[in-house]
């Protein structure tokens, strides 16, 4: 067997192993009533409201992350100011702090500012948690762009901000798409903070829907898995639509 065939066989084996949990998820969701499980989930009380809450929180989070991460990455990459590397290192420490470690102080902040059961109560922590990784990716994209682009735009009379928006920002679009999809995925699927900070029935997000089929003395497993499948559909459709941009964004900034 040639090296190429061995590589293809290994890739196929890994793909099958990776797909097994997904296949099992779908088969479990069809047990019992079959497609009736999906009908019951769709007809469950409050589903549309939960979908709207998730869409609003996730959409605003994605926009904020893209705006702040783009501006921050540009500043750290192309501008020279005192303490630049120190500030950047401090921001990146957010990658090393697990969410569980900040639950207590975050809860105190939510209580002090009256953010419980409000959209900012989820949008702000989601944005803060997503920014460090987004900064790393976008700074790599800006580092890959020659400084001469910014210098030429400034020489032609453009301000630094205008050069950023009109010249450099469009060139990082593959990375922006990748960051947007990654932020969407994490915000849409987040459960712990949504469970703790959105306790009011009309403020819950879609990730709590599976838990609604778990009662005190009965767990409706097929409907729980049907809900999980439906929750992931927007993510799958988004990735399918932007797959090429996402993949090119992964390699943007890899070389300069």
From TrEMBL:
Gene3D superfamilies linked to this entry: MetI-like (1.10.3720.10)
Protein name: Carbohydrate ABC transporter permease
Record-annotated ABC transmembrane type-1 domain positions: 51-242
Any one GO BP annotation for this protein: transmembrane transport
Keyword vocabulary terms for this entry: Cell membrane, Membrane, Transmembrane, Transmembrane helix, Transport
Transmembrane segments: 7-30, 50-74, 86-103, 123-142, 163-185, 224-242
Entry annotated with the keyword Membrane: yes
A Pfam family reported for this protein in Swiss-Prot or TrEMBL: BPD_transp_1
Source domain of life: Bacteria
Main location: membrane
InterPro entries in the record: MetI-like (IPR000515), MetI-like_sf (IPR035906)
Cross-referenced PROSITE patterns: ABC_TM1
Coiled-coil ranges per UniProt: none
Family (UniProt): Belongs to the binding-protein-dependent transport system permease family.
Lineage summary: Bacteria, Bacillati, Actinomycetota, Actinomycetes, Micrococcales
Keyword rRNA-binding (UniProt): no
Membrane topology note: Multi-pass membrane protein
Subcellular location: Cell membrane
């Amino acid at each position: 067997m040639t090296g190429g065939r061995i590589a293809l066989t290994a890739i196929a084996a890994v793909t099958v192993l990776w797909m097994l949990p997904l296949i099992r998820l779908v088969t479990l969701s069809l047990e019992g009533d079959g497609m009736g499980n999906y009908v019951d989930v769709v007809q469950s009380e409050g589903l549309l409201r939960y979908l709207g809450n998730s869409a609003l929180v996730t959409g605003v989070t994605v926009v904020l992350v893209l705006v702040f991460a783009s501006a921050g990455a540009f500043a750290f990459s192309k501008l020279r100011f005192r303490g630049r590397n120190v500030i950047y290192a401090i921001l990146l420490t957010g990658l090393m702090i697990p969410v569980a470690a900040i639950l207590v102080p975050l809860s105190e902040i939510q209580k002090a500012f009256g953010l419980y059961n409000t959209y900012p109560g989820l949008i702000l922590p989601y944005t803060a948690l997503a920014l460090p990784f987004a900064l790393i990716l976008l700074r790599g994209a800006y580092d890959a762009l020659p400084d001469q682009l910014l210098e030429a735009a400034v020489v032609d009379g453009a301000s630094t901000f205008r050069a950023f928006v009109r010249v450099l920002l469009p060139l990082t679009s593959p990375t922006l798409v990748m960051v947007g999809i990654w932020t969407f995925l994490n915000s849409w699927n987040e459960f712990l903070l949504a469970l703790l900070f959105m306790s009011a029935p009309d403020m819950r997000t879609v990730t709590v829907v599976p838990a609604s089929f778990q009662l005190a003395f009965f767990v409706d497993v097929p409907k729980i898995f049907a809900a999980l499948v439906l929750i992931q559909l927007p993510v799958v459709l988004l990735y399918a639509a932007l797959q090429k941009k996402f993949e090119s964004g992964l390699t943007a900034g890899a070389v300069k």
